[in-house]
From TrEMBL:
Keywords: Membrane, Transmembrane, Transmembrane helix
Top-level taxon in the UniProt lineage: Bacteria
Name of the protein in question: Uncharacterized protein
Annotated transmembrane regions: 40-58, 65-83, 95-117
């Protein structure tokens, strides 16, 4: 494995991107609202689940996993913004806020779940010794 490139984290990114694309791109822009329709809670839940799964499968730093998960969601949001602007340039007037919201909604739960996982893991290892 080369320094700086981890295929496991690329898989985490891909899964996060896929989840975001399936939940975001299938809804027409007029009907899309991260805060109004509960999408934000679903994305936070999906990010937490992805974080938990990747911590069970790989022994990685919580922040590293959370960054890759958040970047998967953010990339899907950015591609949706670009696609929608090509179709109608009057959409996404507040696109920077959409990107920041996606980052915050997904990074925070992924990081917290990873951190809790690591704390529980260390606690259980301490009890076994």
């Amino acid at each position: 494995m080369r320094a700086g490139f981890d295929t496991r984290m690329l898989l985490v990114f891909g899964l996060a991107f896929l989840v975001a694309a399936l939940t975001n791109w299938t809804v027409p822009y007029e009907d899309l609202g991260l805060m109004e329709d509960g999408s934000a809670l679903r994305w936070a839940f999906y990010a937490a689940v992805l974080s938990l799964i990747s911590h069970f499968r790989h022994n990685q730093l919580s922040g590293k996993v959370a960054i890759w998960i958040a970047m998967g969601f953010v990339t899907a949001v950015i591609l949706r913004i670009v696609f929608d602007i090509f179709n109608d340039s009057s959409t996404h007037n507040l696109w920077p806020f959409e990107v920041v919201l996606a980052l915050g909604i997904t990074f925070a739960p992924a990081f917290v779940v990873g951190l809790v996982f690591k704390v529980v893991q260390r606690t259980l290892k301490g009890e076994n010794h």
